[in-house]
Amino acid sequence: NLSQGSSNRIEPTLEGMVLVDNNAYSFSTLVDNGVPVHNFTTDQNDSELINLETYLTEMAKASDVREFNR
């Protein structure tokens, strides 16, 4: 969700913004918008991105990602 504040500036709204990071500190001020992920490894069985895709696909159906993420 993006709302246009003026013709020169587009601002994201919090209900549609998702922050994905392997360091939860990165979204510590917007916890409900954050999705923590594990560090990438070279392990062939690492399924973090597959799990993230599934989670984000479901989250995309929500009108407010913060509610979904709680």
Describe the structure.
With 70 residues, the chain is α+β, with helices and mostly antiparallel strands. The protein is 24% helix and 21% strand. The chain has two helices and four strands; from the N terminus they run E-E-E-E-H-H. The protein has helices spanning 48-59, 65-69; strands at residues 2-6, 9-12, 19-21, 34-36. The strands form two sheets. The protein has a two-stranded antiparallel sheet with strand order 1-2. The chain has a two-stranded parallel sheet with strand order 3-4. The two termini are 19 Å apart.
What is the beta-strand fraction? 15-25%
How are the strands ordered across the major sheet?
Answer: 1-2
**Rg (CA only):** 14 Å
Shape: globular
Number of strands: 4
**Major sheet attributes:** 2 strands, antiparallel
What's the N-to-C terminus distance? 19 Å
Q: Pick out the low-confidence regions.
A: none
Outline:
The protein contains 2 helices and 4 strands; from the N terminus they run E-E-E-E-H-H. The protein has about 70 residues and is of the alpha+beta class.
